[in-house]
């Protein structure tokens, strides 16, 4: 079954978690791209306060504990973007509402387990409802997935996919910190890695090693096995037994600092000074291919990623129904190219 792509003329997109740090970037990007956002979330006062800065946006409070309120929030929308996390609590109720409304669902989940749950639990229901679902359409998840897909190019399989993140700093939002706590509880304090074709739990401290990023970033100490949502999306469409993820030690230290402070806006778009480099290397029989993206602010860049995906789902050829990783649904090079150079600088070999 394919989705009915009859919504091209309807630019209304509901954003759940609209007044969160990431939700605000998504609302602003939707408006910049000509969409009309419905501002949704559980705090009516904060939604109305946001609406004063986003003229033309409609406010529809909704709670994930109240399906009828979610139905009201999604009524008449062409798609819904879920920015309310931890997604362990919000994915299922917002997904259920999207299936009832028969509209595309996209989210920005970074939680590997929540993303895996969406693939496992909603593939059948989404197909039956004729709805396209794209979880983790964000910096963690969609970006690594698209880079890995682009790097693979015509390879049918790789022996290993490595994803290395260099963040100049990481001032986490409240949502990131709470989400990290939820994931840690879910894993019972263990780490998770994708090895030998499946997710495996590991105990003890993650190893620290070195990764040489392209100049000018150069060689950095990185925490290995820093597994993110792309390890849940990649195995759904790319053949590889091993996914290895690395994160700069300095960023991990920032994230875990007892006095971690939230991001501070330094430009008119509200972006922080944080810069990132994501390098994906795919390896097969001694050969390697790579794809690199650079940019500013991992929260801010999530907005063009998820809004471009929404645009493509709504205006592209009829999307198949089901749950999809970014690289499985979109032409990875074309998608990434559309974000360059405004949002990303790319180097895809
Ligand atoms: N994959 C990625 O690269 C990526 C990028 C950005 C963000 N994220 C994820 O997106 C989520 C939000 O991040 P953020 O930076 O925007 O954090 P934030 O500024 O703290 O915002 C969190 C938002 O989620 C809402 N929310 C949380 N729990 C909810 C619940 N049970 N029901 C309804 N609303 C709920 C919050 O509403 P209240 O204030 O009313 O609680 C708020 O609007 C986090 O899970 C984060 O990991 C992922």
UniProtKB/TrEMBL annotation:
InterPro entries: NAD(P)-bd_dom_sf, Sacchrp_dh_NADP-bd. Gene3D superfamilies: NAD(P)-binding Rossmann-like Domain (3.40.50.720). It holds the Pfam family Sacchrp_dh_NADP. Residues 13-134 form the Saccharopine dehydrogenase NADP binding domain. This is Uncharacterized conserved protein.
